[in-house]
Amino acid sequence: MTSDPYQDKESIDELLKLYNNLKNGHAGIFLEEDAFEKIIEYYDEQEELSKALEAADTSLEYFPFSAPLMIKKADILLASRKYLDALDLLDKAELFDASDINLYILKTDAFLAMDMQERAVELLEKAVSSFEGEEKVELLFELADVYDDYEEFDKVFDCLSVILKEEPTNEEALYKICFWTDFTGRNEESIKIHKRIIDDYPFSELAWFNLAAAYQGLKLYEKAIDAYQYALAIDEKFDYAYRNLGDAYIRVRKYREAIEALEKVLELSKPEEVIYEAIGHCYDHLKNYAQARFHYRKASHLNPEDSKLFYKIACTYYNEKQYGSAIKQLESALKIQRMQPEYNLLMGECKMQLNEIKEAVQYLSTAVRVRPKNIAGWEALIRCLYNAGFLSEARQQALAALSHSNGKPVFLFYLSAILFSMNKSKEALLYLEKGLSSTTRHLKKFVDLNPSILRNSQVVDLIAQYKRNRKG
Predict the structure, then answer these.
(1) Which of 136, 251, 321, 407 has the highest local Cβ count within 10 Å?
(2) Average pLDDT across the chain, whole number
(3) 268 and 292 Cβ atoms separated by less than 8 Å
């Protein structure tokens, strides 16, 4: 049954009239205890604290031993920031009725307002053991909030775990424990909690969802996928389950299945940049660059200031060898983040492909200057200078790359190739041997830089020797 607002208004108006007559000394007027409670609540809701406090004082003149009225007055004192007065009154109320849960909630509020977290925790922990059922659960939520405020996050998880033992299908606890499982990393415990709930309540979609999320936190993606599918079998409109399912499919490289799940998210909820971007990512991996671009653009329309999306669109064009189109997208990205090394690196690669060497060198130089430990940037700059015939500069950059990368072997191979092209064969062989002594993995890059090098018998013999040694 729902209350009638008009009837409620008439009722409070009548009570206020009686109350004012009582204050004015009219004879024969008497108000019940619950009538005073309604009057105090009314003034509190109207934010007329002075009138609420006056009504509370008046009520206690007529009912001096009423714990509920003392608690009402304490609530008003708290709102007026009179914390010590409120605590004194609550202590008095406790003598008359220690079973009112509001006593402990208001005392907690007072302690927290005075930055006495330890007292609040001590009070609630003691109170929790004195209550059962819904009241115990309410106090546990209060305790969890206190732990949250003071960053004792594992204890928040513990409180929620106890709540779920009391009420396994409590939706608020199920929603919250999912977040705190991820935050604290207590995935194994979450799995045990939710398996226990599912044993008794197999149609709890939230329990299945939380179980899946815990598996996902442990990178057990196949198990997570199974659990998400159970959640969706129970509630086919569970958009967050589709969202996380899409992520799990991406992790196991099942991109078509991921697209299907993420498209369900778009059907069930408001369009989001992150979902369109994730679908674009899937199409990218399927080498369907046109569809990848379409979804990256959808994401970009929702967040035009996200430079990364322009960069991703540029990558799709680059993969299709549409370097001019890639450059246009990179120009948009660079307007937003001029010094982003990835954007400068790809722009340099595009300019190199179009034989615009001077600009390519400028962009690639920016990339390595901003992120000097990035191997790809140095490699691209060295290749660009070498292919343009600037051998001296290429040699200089290869030496710089060795210095900045703590002697990565790949740059020994680049340096060797450059020295061969400069007709410094003796020095080139020394660097090649040094590179081969570390790894033969970069031989392809060495040969790609100058395929004719394989006509050099000393090079071929040296490579063959080290390959034999590796096999041995």
Answers:
(1) 136
(2) 91
(3) no
Q: Helix, strand, or coil here: 282?
A: helix
Q: Measure the CA–CA gap between 121 and 118, rounded to whole angstroms.
A: 5
Banded model confidence at residue 34, pLDDT cuts 50, 70, 90: confident
Contact status, residue 245 vs residue 261, Cβ threshold 8 Å = yes
Q: Examine the pLDDT at 260 and tell me if it is beyond 60.
A: yes
Q: How far apart are CA 14 and CA 35, in angstroms?
A: 10
Q: What is d(CA 470, CA 472) in angstroms, rounded to the nearest whole number?
A: 5
User: 261-289 as b/e, with b when 16 or more CB fall inside 10 Å?
Assistant: bbebbbeeeeeebebbbbbbbbbbeeebb
Q: Which two tokens stand for residue 420?
A: 């061969």
Give the amino acid at 165: K
Q: Which residue has the tokens 């007065």?
A: 85
For residue 349, pLDDT beyond 60: yes
Task: Average the pLDDT over 227-240 and give the result.
Answer: 97
Collapsed DSSP state (helix, strand, coil) of residue 271? coil
What is the residue whose two structure tokens read 């809701």?
A: 45
What one-character-per-residue DSSP string does 341-389 give?
HHHHHHHHHHHHHTT-HHHHHHHHHHHHHH-TT-HHHHHHHHHHHHHTT
Spatial distance between the Cα atoms of 234 and 81, rounded to a whole number of angstroms: 48
Q: What is the mean pLDDT of residues 54-59?
A: 80
Six-digit token string for 339: 């010094």
Q: Say which residues have a Cβ less than 8 Å from residue 219's Cβ, sequence separation at least 6.
A: 251
DSSP character for 179? Answer: H
Highest mean pLDDT among 27-36, 192-201, 456-465: 192-201
Give the span between the Cα atoms of 10 and 226, in whole angstroms. Answer: 57
Q: Quick check: 1 pLDDT over 60? A: no
- Indicate the length of the chain as a whole number: 472
Q: What's the CA gap between 15 and 31, in Å, rounded?
A: 8
| Residue of 367, 351, 425, 443 lying closest to 401 (CA atoms) | 367
Residue 148 near residue 156 (C-beta atoms within 8 A)? yes
pLDDT average, residue stretch 415-436: 95
Radius of gyration for the chain, computed over Cα atoms and rounded to the nearest angstrom: 36
pLDDT over 70 (residue 436): yes
Asked whether the beta carbons of 206 and 180 are under 8 A apart, the reply is: no
Hey, what are 293's tokens?
């671009």
Q: Categorize the per-residue pLDDT at 7 as very low, low, confident or very high, splitting at 50, 70 and 90.
A: very low
pLDDT tens digits, 320-343 = 999 999 999 999 999 999 999 999
3-state SS class at 69: helix
d(CA 334, CA 62): 75
Query: What does the alpha-carbon distance between residue 71 and residue 68 come to, in Å, rounded to a whole number?
Result: 5
pTM of this structure: 0.80
User: What stretches of 113-208 adopt beta strand conformation (E)?
Assistant: none
